[in-house]
Amino acid sequence: MDEHEKQDLFNEGLDLLGQNxxxxxxxxxxxxxxxxxxxxxxxxxxxxxxxxLKSIPDSLNxxxxxxxxxxxxxxxxxxxxxxxxxxxxxxxxxxxxxLAVEKGIEEDFVYYGQAYNYxxxxxxxxxxxxxxxxxxxxxxxxxxxxxxxxxxPFLGEFDKAMECNDxxxxxxxxxxxxxxxxxAILRAKKEYEMAIDCFKKAHELDPDEAxxxxxxxxxxxxxxxxxxxxxxxxxxxxxxxxxIYLESQLxxxxxxxxxxxxxxxxxxxxxxxxxxxxxxxxxxxxxxxIFKDRKTNESIxxxxxxxxxxxxxYNQIDNYLKSLKENYQLICKGIVIARGYEPNFINLIxxxxxxxxxxxxxxxxx
Length: 366
Known about the structure:
Layout: H1 3-18, H2 22-35, H3 40-53, H4 56-69, H5 74-86, H6 90-103, H7 111-120, H8 124-137, H9 142-151, H10 158-171, H11 176-188, H12 192-205, H13 210-222, H14 226-237, H15 243-256, E1 268-270, E2 275-278, E3 284-287, E4 290-293, E5 299-304, H16 311-328, E6 332-338, H17 343-349, E7 355-359
Organism: Methanobacterium alkalithermotolerans
Protein name: DUF1016 family protein
InterPro entries: NucS_C, TPR-like_helical_dom_sf, TPR_rpt, tRNA_endonuc-like_dom_sf, Ycf3/AcsC/BcsC/TPR_MFPF
């Protein structure tokens, strides 16, 4: 097969791939590779098709074999980094993007992937660096502006974050993340009226997200607009996911009367500053149940569940503590309050001296 025939066959394979005719396209690429196993573009497209027809792990297995044979092909390292990102193996993905650069790929190609990896790993400093590098050459990328606007507050750069969110909204008026992140900053700065407007817009864009409603209600309470807050409470109560309403009610009881924790040895008072973190799903969350222990001066973070505590609950409180320590330099301790627990949760808790479990029933709440 000469170069001209190979190119024609490759182009035919691309056309079929563009029509989502994966099996027919795969046959053509494999025919090329039988004649020329080193044909890089055919290898890459075969990887894409395997990921679609079978699975990403199947595609990775094939790709690993090709990397062993053709370690000079930097695009293979780039592709592996992208597939690892899809599998949420972010640290490995970072490594292979770095290798792709070492092998010769232009750095511009890896900026977005690296930014996303570091964002997922909650390394906001590196995420900001790579999003900024990416945006230098892609200034119209609204999604990256919103993600940059999300990361910057964790570094204390609130004004810059607001500018990024405004830029994201200018480019994409339907950016939920930009509106929610902007609202979160405004709420943290106690600019409640403007925060409410942004939370309302975010809720219009994603009406299935109950957290925006809770934040609107809490802003209204902060403004002393209790009747309006009650109306939102009714909406939340009738929300498809009623568990969030029940938990919010229990949270408010503890928030309004933290003295109930005294019988567990905690003499706490409210912390006026509001803290935002990124949860396990990558969404911005406020830590509403955070107090200061008058005796030890530690920050006490409470994770409350109206169900059994699970491994996910452990990951949430662990994430809160790590974020507060790393991003706000707080000395803190966690308390999980729930209706019992699963074995994998309590096994992990028993290994920690900075997290305590309390039965919700012991507090006397119905």
